[in-house]
Design brief:
Blueprint lengths: L21 E4 L12 E5 L5 E9 H7 L6 E4 L4 E12 L2 E8 L11
Antiparallel strand pairs: 1-2, 2-3, 3-6, 4-5, 5-6
The structure holds zinc ion.
The site of zinc ion has 8 residues, from loops.
Length: 110
């Protein structure tokens, strides 16, 4: 059995539906894709779960992102908590996200 560190070897449960039919896409600058985000996709519900999202300095300013805030992925109608923000370049930030499955009952609670 060959583990190349990619794909299914790091399978985890989809936070939105619980399926383990997930596939991880790692962030890479020079790989076969030039993904700037890191996420996994779920073939059961079709949703994308972000682990890392890259933002430019401008996007950070406009979004006013801060650790502990809620990050909404409108395209997939999912929510995350921003666990950490890391500056990785002159004009790039990485946001670490933790999925927040469930409906919006927690919004507004501080
Ligand atoms: Zn799923």
């Amino acid at each position: 059995m060959v583990n190349d560190g990619l794909g299914e070897t790091d399978a985890r449960a989809c936070p939105w539906c619980g399926s383990r039919a997930t596939r991880r896409v790692a962030r890479g600058y020079t790989g076969p894709t030039d993904e700037v985000d890191q996420y996994f996709t779920c073939s059961a519900c079709g949703k994308v779960t972000y682990e890392l999202v890259a933002k430019t300095a401008r996007e950070m300013r406009l979004g006013r992102y801060q650790a502990g805030d809620i990050y909404q992925d409108r395209a997939h109608q999912t929510r995350y908590q921003i666990t950490r923000i890391l500056k990785v370049g002159a004009n790039e930030f990485l946001m670490y996200l933790r999925p927040m499955p469930g409906k919006s009952e927690a919004i507004g609670v501080v």
